[in-house]
Request: fold
Amino acid sequence: MLENSYVFKIQRYSIHDGPGIRTTLFFQGCPLSCHWCHNPESQAKPLKTNGEDMDRVAAGLMEEIEKDLIFYDDSGGGVTFSGGEPLCQPQLLFRLLDQCREKEIHTCVDTSGYGDAKILLKVAKKVDLILYDIKLIDEKAHKQYTGKSVARVLDNLKQLSNQTAAVRLRFPLIPEMTDKDENIDRIIVFLKEDTIYRDIHILPFHRAGEGKYQSLSMKNYMEGIQPPSKKKVLNVKEQFESSGFSVTIGG
Ligand code: SF4
Reply:
């Protein structure tokens, strides 16, 4: 594996980060600090390196990506740039997207939407599919549970919609935080009034990242909180479907 200060983990054979079998590169650094984050180690900014040659870094990562070409071809998969927040490292991200396109490798960028609009719109031109999280509509709740304002996330999604960019919306279903009826109703109203998107993937909270908080000496806000019940997940699915959305559980 060739992890480095920009990409803290490379996961092969992933089936949760876009279509088919994928290699997922987790970028270091995220401006948000979601209470339910499964990758809390990703939140710190990457260490500064002294003028490291970005072309060389990208070339090393491309070598890793290309090892699994056969799986991408057979499954309709490809590579996903996740994190952390890949929009925080545009120079590396642009290089990788350009090289994947040259080699006809399908690409996804998994983003919180909290990034510079110019960078996001440039990414939209280079990527095959954007995986975009919509978590909370209420400004106060968004700040409380992610640390940042929601305005940029919503505005960026409107801009993608105006460009008819290929977007897969993802709604993390987090008990006691995002799962309130009012939040979901307001998300539905926003999407219907301000965007073209009518498909949504529900991502139910799971406790996979739990052990990391202790080892990083970070507060685990999810301690003792159980994943949503099957009934709750189906109720939320129904809430979106009855408003005309096509819903997938997972991915
Ligand atoms: S946006 Fe993703 S990586 Fe960043 S803190 Fe939230 S869950 Fe973690």
Notes: Residues 101 and 126 are 8 Å apart (CA to CA). The chain has a mean pLDDT of 95.
